[in-house]
Amino acid sequence: MAYVRAAVVREPGGPFAIESLSMRGPEPGEVRVRIMAAGICHADLIARDQMYPVPLPAVLGHEGAGIVEECGSGVQALAPGDHVVLGFAYCGRCASCLQGFPGTCEHTAALNFGSERPAAEQPLSDSAGTISSSFFGQSSFAEYAIVAEHLAVRVPRDIPFELLAPLGCGVMTGAGTVFHVLDPRPGSSIAVFGAGAVGCAAIMAAVIAGCTTIIAVDVNPRRLEIARECGATDVLLATDDVASAIRDITGERGVDAGLDATGIAAVFPVLLQSLAVRGHAALVGAPPPGDLAHIDLNPLLGRGVRISTVLEGDAQPQVFIPELARLLASGRLPVDRIVSTFPFERINEAVAAACSGSAVKAVLRVANRPA
């Protein structure tokens, strides 16, 4: 039994406390990964706040990147020394997984938010017993993570871990939604509501896809500046007349595609009003349970609009994360524009920066890059 430092949440909305915990070794089909960097994502915060009832005490974190240090028996695709990005948990056996859509695995809620492992199999524990430590199959707010082999995706060794970490969720969600779901044509238009990490990744993907009108909408002027750096052609400070402003930009036509990454229920109807005929809207931000969006369906019927709800960018992590890594290495996916790094010990400062919007994507440097 080894001892590792981990950031533990013990009460709803409570702080992250760095503690020393016991960690078991990898079981068959698992690997032990030394976490070099971990991104802070909205899902970590809503789990901390118990919007989704993750068992507490818990070690959260689901944007981990690091180095494989030990493999359990039966592991074939990975070896010690491999650099990896950690993806999300999925069963691999349900109809959705077998059809190539693990993001909508029938067991997504239990596997990712429920930390669905028997107590005896949880990787981390303290003197009082086991700690919930399989959040999204990884719980990467720790020096090490024990993960299933298929969650760890091998990536090139020459990319900084702090840029790789966000590929596991935020960048995968934003870019994947554009590439896999909205699939905009070259020369088309798109509006992105919410210029956080997911929204900025969507903007980067829209540039790669060849969109010529890319509109970013946010309440934070600094985030809109960063959205421009990521490729937005137009930016709008969120007001009551956003839909009219979008129609002005597009010559009264509306946008061909739109993405809502805000997690605010009242925003999605505005996105729908901003669409062109046969436009396509994607919802990726998660409003609190019970929040309702009021949509007038009648005007939509005659315009042929499409609505998609998307988890994890409809991506297959083992395929898409290496694609994102290649785009990152080539300079076409400028993730460095959105990343702010913090030492692991300053995790609560990083969380505050993420919540205030001063950091678009806060990333923890959990360990130093090895020589």
Automatic annotation (TrEMBL):
A Pfam family: ADH_N
SMART domains, A to Z: PKS_ER (SM00829)
Record bears the keyword RNA-binding: no
Coiled-coil blocks: none
InterPro entries, per the entry: ADH-like_C, ADH-like_N, ADH_Zn_CS, ER, GroES-like_sf, NAD(P)-bd_dom_sf
Cofactor dependency: Zn(2+)
UniProt-recorded name of the protein: NAD(P)-dependent alcohol dehydrogenase
